[in-house]
Structure formats: C-alpha cells, structure tokens
Amino acid sequence: MNFFRLSFIRFVVACVSLLAISYSIYDSGFNIFQVFAQFTYISNISVILVLFLVCFKCISDKYILMVLPQITLTYIVFALLLSKGIVNETPYSLVEHYFLPIYLLCDYFLFVKERVKIYKVLIVLVTYTVIYMIYMYSYGYFSGYYPYFFIDLTINPLWKVVANSIAIIILVYVIFFVIAAAKQAQNKIYKRFSDKRNTI
Q1: Tens place of pLDDT for every residue, the chain, 200 residues?
Q2: CA distance linking residue 60 with residue 191, whole number of Å
Q3: Which residues lie below 8 Å from residue 55, measured CB to CB, with a gap of 6+?
Q4: Do 93 and 75 touch, CB atoms closer than 8 A?
Q5: Residue 48 CA, distance from chain mean position
Q6: Burial level of 50, CB count in 10 A (0-12/13-18/19+)?
Q7: Distance between CA atoms of 12 and 93, rounded to whole angstroms?
C-alpha cells in the first residue's frame, strides 16, 4: 500500500481512538490517577502515541510490536472476563477493546516489513509491566481503588492477587512470543514465494 495512504489510515485510526478514549474518561468520571491505573487506558494511549509517531515518520512502523502485546492483552482479558457482550458495549468501549486491538494486529501482519530487535521489545515490556504494577498497587494501597476485580486486594486474598498478577504478566510475554513467531513464519513464507517467483 502507498505510504501516504497507509499513514492516512493510521492517522484516522489514531484520531478515532483518541476521541473514543477521551470520551470514555470523561464519561466514567475517573481522575487522572485512576486513568493511569487502568491497563486499558494506558495500553490504548500507548498505541495512539505510536501510531501518531509512525504517521509523521518519527519512528519506524516496526515499533508497533512494542505496544501490540499490551493492546492484545486488553482485548483478550476484556472479551473473556469483563465484557457483557459486544451488543451491550458502548461505542467507545468497542473502539478501546475491540477495534483498536484488531486493527493493530491487522496492520502489523499486513503492512509492517521491518523487524525490531527482540531484546528491545522485551526491555520495553519489562519496563512497562513493572512500572504499571508498582503504580497500580501503590495507588490502590493508598486510595483503595483497584481497576479490576481479579486484582482487588479489598475483596481477594493476597495469594490470589499475586497469582492473578503473575498470570497476567506471563500472558503478556506469551502473546508477544506468539506474535513474533507468527510474524517470522509469515516472513519466511513470503520470502519463499518471492524466491520461487523470481526463479520462474
């Protein structure tokens, strides 16, 4: 696809997502501290920021992989544990939890050609998850606010919250390695067909 056309699509997606998340925050009445305790919000904000940076050629689109596992986790956890069904979700919730994750997966597998170093992505993921967990539990300890029922220390025993937190962290890395492996397989298949085409 033409670079400018793809950049325009990414720009529109980023703008629509920004409007959706802005209205979601306004409608929920969350304060700024609660916003940053919500994994959904920070994963969406991260994706929006990366898409804008890619659109304006500040970074390569290969860095989409650095935020793809987090937004994919948002989709999986919400769809399996939190959603009351797609037909019952608000339009902005559909954008946050379904549209943006699915779009980014399609974008990455259809249009991203370059490969980012695995260790760079792992550094980002480790930093991302550690900072989020420290902030979220610190804020929860002092305010009593926990964003999700399965990590709420006011209703769950410590061991269960720790187990759920570890499971979430592991799931982020599993998602990353599955995506990375799938992309590598895609590139190998594409190269094989390209080589065959060139020999004909």
Answers
A1: 777 899 999 999 999 999 999 999 999 888 999 999 999 999 999 999 999 999 999 999 999 999 999 999 999 999 888 888 888 889 999 999 999 999 999 999 999 998 899 999 999 999 999 999 999 999 999 999 999 999 999 999 999 999 999 999 999 999 999 999 999 999 888 888 776 666 65
A2: 21
A3: 7, 10, 11, 14
A4: no
A5: 10
A6: buried
A7: 17
Phi first, then psi, for residue 30 (nearest 5°) are -70, 145
Q: What is the pLDDT of residue 3?
A: 72
The residue with tokens 């802005």 is 22
The three-state DSSP-derived secondary structure of the chain is CCHHHHHHHHHHHHHHHHHHHHHHHHHHCCCHHHHCCCHHHHHHHHHHHHHHHHHCCCCCHHHHHHCHHHHHHHHHHHHHHHCCCHHHCCHHHHHHHHHHHHHHHHHHHHHCCCCCCHHHHHHHHHHHHHHHHHHHHHHHHHHCCCCCHHHCCCCCCHHHHHHHHHHHHHHHHHHHHHHHHHHHHHHHHHHHHHHHHHHC
Please give the structure tokens belonging to residue 178: 């599955």
